[in-house]
Amino acid sequence: MDNQRLFLWLGLAIILWITWRTWVEDYGPQQQPQPTVTEQTADAPVRAPEDPDLPALADTDLPALTPGMPSDQDAPDLGPVVRVVTDVLDIDIALLGGDLVRAELPRYPLRKDQPDVPIRLLSAEPERRFVFQTGLRRLGDGPEPNHLARFEADRSEYRLTPGQNELRVILRWQNGEGVRAYKIYTFRRGQYRVDLEQRLVNESDAPWAGAPYLQIQRRHLPPPRSLFSVESYSFSGPVLFNGRSYDKLSVSDLHSTPVTQAVENGWLAAIQHHFLAAAVPTPGAVVNYRASARDGVFTVSAVEPVTQVAPGTTASFDNRLFVGPKLQSQLRQTADGLHKTVDYGILTILSEPLFWLIDRTHDVVQNWGLAIILVTVLIKLLFWKLTAISGRSMAKMRKLQPRLKALQERYKDDRQALSKAMMDLYKREKVNPAAGCLPILIQMPFFFAFYWVLLESVEMRQAPFALWITDLSSRDPFFILPLLMGAAMWFQQRLNPAPPDPVQARIMQVLPIIFTVFFAFFPAGLVLYWLTNTVLSALQQWRINVVIERDAKA
Questions:
Q1: In a 3-state reduction of DSSP, which class is residue 393?
Q2: pLDDT by residue (tens digit) across 458-515?
Q3: CB within 8 A of 95, min separation 6: which ones?
Q4: How far apart, in whole angstroms, are the C-alpha atoms of residue 214 and residue 285?
Q5: Domain residue spans of the chain
Q6: Which terminal residue of the chain has fewer beta carbons within 10 Å of its beta carbon, N or C?
Q7: Side-chain half-sphere CA neighbours of 231 within 13 A
Q8: Per-residue pLDDT for 547 more than 50?
Q9: In this structure, is the dihedral angle defined by the CA atoms of residues 348, 122, 224 and 474, taken in order, positive or negative?
Q10: CATH class of the structural domain 46-343
């Protein structure tokens, strides 16, 4: 087997992989049909769930209410909201429940050409519901400060002012019987992590027993199926981390089979391509996790153990929320394992150090496109000597092409004799046709790891490079990079020996065209990486060919 055949199989494998993924999306297991959402006018009030899913307390017989989806009719109005604006977040906190019900990310426009329209991650609108729900569940009868209780605030708007690094928002609740509860949110400059303290003050004559819970509810809206959409290849839905393993949950399975776990040091999240919302319970507590779905809406919750609050005492529960882009440095600071939501798949062991290298390079050059080029050069240098073995084998095979063609003509009616004559020729000339395969196979995991780094890293989203490339995460608007890549592949083929089989030779001739068409719809950052690697490989092969020919004439 020679390098040309290996590249042929690689190209066919990529085509088959993309075709298989498309077939799975179109004909594989589908999500349960979602109900039709009643159309609302722009002035219609935001609605809360008519039949909410209040999670059950751990180790008690208190049942959870039947999981319900947001109702568009006869549901209570969320009422007033408190707006919180920092340098990176624009959030609404509903006084009904005291929870985050809207979150926009000013630094992340929805589209590159619409910089004033930010990504909206959280929303209370029924057709794209995505909200946090937090509170305290009470053991026994009586009012409780859950996500249906009415809270109060001193102000309707809080803004992080210049020079201010921290912003605290305090919400209050009381039951009229000497029990008061507070939700205290802490926002920090430049941070997408939000600290939440749930505090209960018992000034009554009786003990109060209850437990805090965190919950995320979202309508499942998977990205549109598209052969060339990068969002189609990223998981979108609920995930759980139990302190050891990271599980992506199928919403269709959750409709029929809810997931229940009791774990320590875990977290729950709802993720999508480049963005997520996550909730982290108190570290060290054994927490009851539950995930379920109904009518296209999934709910993931975490309930901590019951705490007794004696009369005249106070109990505080410290939790962390995260709503924003998958910035790995901030994810690691928020919770152990939260960076796993940047899903590199089976190549994580290679992709994580590759991202670290690109990130450090970007810190120096301040341009993600240039960082991609420089890291590609570094990887090529790492394997330079190894690929030189492949290159010398290709150069020697190229010199033998006339003699191989002569053998094919001589033994065209005797395949066995042709194989023996070719092996004898290779032995006399000390050429191993398989010598060029191993170096390329060793490099393949690095190439695909690089692919997933560029696909999953939000840092590259809408990042400019130079000239007409204003967004490395979207396709080249003028298809110049894919055409250059195709030309580089064609030039590289001209430096290599043609396959002895005529059918393979013809396929190899059209392979640059096939790759150009496919890469025309891939993100420009991926094409830039592949173009750089192809140019470096072609230059290395050209240099080796020159040296081999010069040595042969000496």
A1: helix
A2: 988 888 898 899 888 888 889 999 999 999 988 887 776 665 556 666 777 777 888 8
A3: 78, 79, 80, 81, 82, 150, 151, 152, 153, 171
A4: 13
A5: 46-343, 352-553
A6: C
A7: 15
A8: yes
A9: negative
A10: mainly beta
